[in-house]
Write a structure and sequence with these properties.
alpha/beta; Rossmann fold; 8 strands; binds guanosine-5'-triphosphate; binds magnesium ion
Amino acid sequence: MGSRAASDASAGVAPSDGGASPGVPAASPAPAGASPAPGAGDDRGVYVRPTVAGAAKILVVGPLGVGKTTLIGSVSEIRPLSTEAVMTQAGARVDTGGERSKRTTTVALDFGRITLDGELVLYLFGTPGQPRFLPTWRELANGCLGALALVDTRDLEASFDSLGHLEDLDVPFSVAVNSFPDSPRYGEAELRAALDLLPHTPLTVCDARDHDSSLRALIALVTHLIETTGETPS
Ligand SMILES: Nc1nc2c(ncn2[C@@H]2O[C@H](COP(=O)(O)OP(=O)(O)OP(=O)(O)O)[C@@H](O)[C@H]2O)c(=O)[nH]1
Ligand SMILES: [Mg+2]
């Protein structure tokens, strides 16, 4: 496995012997006031609460099949908008990677909404995962406060483009490892080195299928954004 750091291929990491990514912290618990887990689509709130004092646009990025659509769907308090299309043989040569069982892919964007602590609304925009859609990020990133970058440890190299693109666009971000059953486990230092993360960039583990886990990853991001920008979204 390679490192994202330019020309330092020797910094590759090997899986640590078992364990659940011991060095990589799970994000801290969700605050008591965070929105409850949404139930079936019909139960989801439609209107922004009157208590809301601020809003922020957040990108959810990552390579093909890393779990972006899944995360937005599990955390959104409104019925998420998704633009899934069936992957066909015609795209097989360009749309590589991702879950082998995966049959659809996002072709425009995902959209969802979550209210934190009754006060801060996050509008979540999921990017398409195929590399050929990277140029569309420039538009999607317009006006965003930051990004949650999902990573799959089964193919760390697949995330390099996403992270590099965020840096190019000057979008602050945090990283969340979305764990799959067959994901190799790495220590935090190994992962940070392989992904070439700055020391202050949050690195957490999440399960994109789980509402609370996804929420914690977003809270880690927002906490980081508030700390680094010194501003509360308005
Ligand atoms: N085991 C496991 N499966 C997951 C997890 N997250 C997503 N999946 C599955 O992985 C597949 C890919 O998830 P998506 O959410 O479609 O991935 P995506 O990043 O939106 O993919 P693209 O839009 O094609 O880039 C789906 O079949 C999910 O059910 C996870 O945390 N654990
Ligand atoms: Mg998707």
